[in-house]
Structures are given as structure tokens and as C-alpha cells.
Amino acid sequence: MKWQQIPLGIIQTNCYIIEGTNKTCLIVDPGDEGNKLINLIKSKGLTPLAILLTHAHFDHIGAVDDIRNTYKIPVYVHKLEEKWLEDPILNASQSFPSIGTVKIHPADHLIMDEGVMKIGDFEFQVFHTPGHSPGSVSYYFEKEGFVISGDALFQGSIGRTDLPGGNQSQLLQSIHNKLLTLPEDTYVLSGHGPITTIIDEMDSNPFLNGY
């Protein structure tokens, strides 16, 4: 299994294509530029099985319907953000007039609990990691040694908490209790910026030191 990081849109939100066996893949956070993403998927000869959302802010969901309609695949989001896809206030697109309002059709599946999720040949764990937003989740691929953290944890930083439902104390708890407990060599695939590791953030992230 391998991943590819694709920054999309003017905010350069990281979308991830997780490639498995038999040329199947999962698509995580298709935030914008649907045609670019579709062309990339076609060029690689991949068959998408599902769209996973780490959370429902506008810059992570903008191309969801493009991908869903093209491949007829389901979308997964946490139950606490069920209404966010359709609501420009909750998904924060209304706060950024230059972006334009973002409204996406409802998710096909709601993530109700933490635990193991299986989609096709993919098996991974779902962690509820709120703080950046109430329904933020992280997807941990234990055998492959990586976690997709959305906007919870970045290289040298953490997610902003000034948007609807944000809570810095809760975010720090999520990071320390769910992410920093993973093996130190685990790769962290963040919603923005470069890939990092758990040990690097434990050692040098100024937002985590002294918590």
C-alpha cells in the first residue's frame, strides 16, 4: 500500500490517494480541483472505493461531489458534522467570500464510533480527534505505519481553533491522547504542509512542548 499527497485549491489543502491491491484506492479530503484529481486517478488506472473526510471544512470537501458522481462511491464523515457539508456557515466557506459558498450533498455514511473500518481490502482505525472541529477524525493505517491527521496536527504546528466548534484544549487532548501515543516512527499525513512523523512533533513542535 502506498499514498500520494496532492495539494489542491488556493489553500493547498492536502488530498491523499491511498492505493491498495488490485489498483483500488481510497480518496481522503478531495478539497478542490475535481477535474485535476479525476485526471490523476485515471492516469494511474485506479478504481476508487470511497471518499473519507477527516472533517467537513470547505477546503477539504470542495470536490467531493465531482468525485462521488464520477465514480459512484460513498462518502464518509463523522456524525457530528453531518449537516456541515450542506451548510456554508458550518463548513466556514461563508467566512471566506473570495472562495465562494460550498454546498455538498449529504454523506452516504456517518462515522458513529471509533474503531476498525474495512473498505474493500483496506483496513484501518478511526480515531475521533476533535478540537479543530467537533467531528474531526484521524485515520490510522497501522500495518503501513501512517496516520492521516487532517487539520489536527501539522509539521511544527496544530490546527486552528477559531472556526465554529473549535476548542484548543480539546485539540491538544486529542493530539496527546490519540496521536502521540502511536509508534514514534509513524508518518503523519497532515491536511496542510509536508509529511512529518510522531517523533519529530514530540521533539520539536512548540505547541506540544510543556502541555
UniProtKB/TrEMBL annotation:
InterPro entries: MBL_Glyoxalase_II (IPR051453), Metallo-B-lactamas (IPR001279), RibonucZ/Hydroxyglut_hydro (IPR036866). Its cofactor is Zn(2+). It comes from the Bacteria. The keyword Nucleotidyltransferase does not apply. SMART domains: Lactamase_B (SM00849). Gene3D superfamilies: Ribonuclease Z/Hydroxyacylglutathione hydrolase-like. Keywords: Hydrolase, Metal-binding, Zinc. GO terms for molecular function: hydrolase activity; metal ion binding. Residues 12-192 form the Metallo-beta-lactamase domain. The keyword Transcription does not apply. This is MBL fold metallo-hydrolase. It comes from Neobacillus thermocopriae.
